[in-house]
Design goal:
Number of helices: 10
Structural class: alpha/beta
Oligomer: single chain
Low-confidence stretches: none
CATH topology of the largest domain: FAD/NAD(P)-binding domain
Cofactor: FAD
Strand order of the largest sheet: 3-2-1-7-19
Mean pLDDT: 95
Pfam families: Pyr_redox_2, Reductase_C
Number of domains: 3
Keywords: FAD, Flavoprotein, Oxidoreductase
Strand content: 25-35%
Distance between the termini: 49 Å
Protein name: NAD(P)/FAD-dependent oxidoreductase
Shape: globular
Largest sheet: 5 strands, parallel
Radius of gyration: 22 Å
Helix content: 10-25%
CATH architecture of the largest domain: 3-Layer(bba) Sandwich
Amino acid sequence: MAADPGVVIIGASLAGAQAARALRLDHCYDGPITLVGDENHLPYQRPALSKGYLLGTIEPGELDVLEPRFYADQDVTLALGAPATALDLDARRVRLGRNVELAFGQVLIATGARPRRLRVPGADLDGVHYLRDRDDSERLGAALRAASDVVVIGAGWLGCEVAAAARALGVRTTVVDPLPAPLYHVLGDRIGGLLARRHLDHGVNLLTGDGVEAVLGTRSVEAVRTVAGRRVPADLVVVGVGVTPNTELAEAAGLRVDGGVLTDGHLRTSHPAALAAGDVARHRHPRYLKPVRIEHWDNAVVHGTAAAATLAGRPTVVDHVPYFFSTQYGSTLEYVGLPATSDRVVTRGVPGEPGFTAFWLDRGIPVAALTVDNPGAAGHLRGLVAAGHSADPRRLADPDVPMADLLPRVPAS
């Protein structure tokens, strides 16, 4: 029998490392595993890059997905600082750089995403920063400590976290976003407005309903001019206007791509030798009956674990309810579900205070929820959304009803 050519994982990311771990430890896969990564760092976790790592309260080693010795102990070959440049799925070979080729039996594409670039005059000036990887965070952290005025372009999760970090460092901070409220596409006007108030209370100059027309300066940033004609002083600009999945390698290899690498519910792509996972994958989600691409930490963990099961011949349907968390100004926000057009928002607790929770209902069924400083609640909220049953709005709003009691009761068998 021919030797197993093994698994190549393209992307030394959270999803990629999680897949390697699960292959070895959960499924006892004993074939070769090679983990390929563009960066020279061991696989690391990204959430802290806009929080504790940016502030210098988290050390580099705390970002590691796995203990550094795992790779040698479990015979996982690392090819770091070696971007994959070509993928031949029929020949089952991947090229690294110009000269190195690896054979594989199966390949997992976990190439992640990159920041969308700002397309206005002055976007290439010194002092314009993006935040995606560990080196970006280190550069931005140093720049923030030397800055007087920062303008954050984009009031999504990343922009809000960077703004909170900048204020923690005492930097004058302005956030510009064309939408009516922070995280408007996720939280809507009402709950997004509560987040806006929190940023305003911490001294952020929040310019919603406005966009950036140009970044001003000669060699480096001096100000930002908005669409409304405001001139905002800045010696530092941080751009957080979303990401683009890194699908080029997959597309050149002939895989189906549409806003991400398309997969079925088991993360299998249009070629039998290839799977995709993490930020780059747009998988057919049986719960939502459509392809979805989710950029959160939790999704990378779930995808990595599920991809390993499929690679090991034990396909697992990926049907989890998405989960996301953020920390801003000492508070932890946890969100479950997908952003959706909902006909009702029900709240419990005092807005912005610990325990505050918002539920988004679609025809009486909870489809998403946000909770603030409410340890342990997210699991119950995830179960509530996963159940897909109608809920009594009065019970949802009543803080005396424990979260666990909101879950539908399963009849005794």
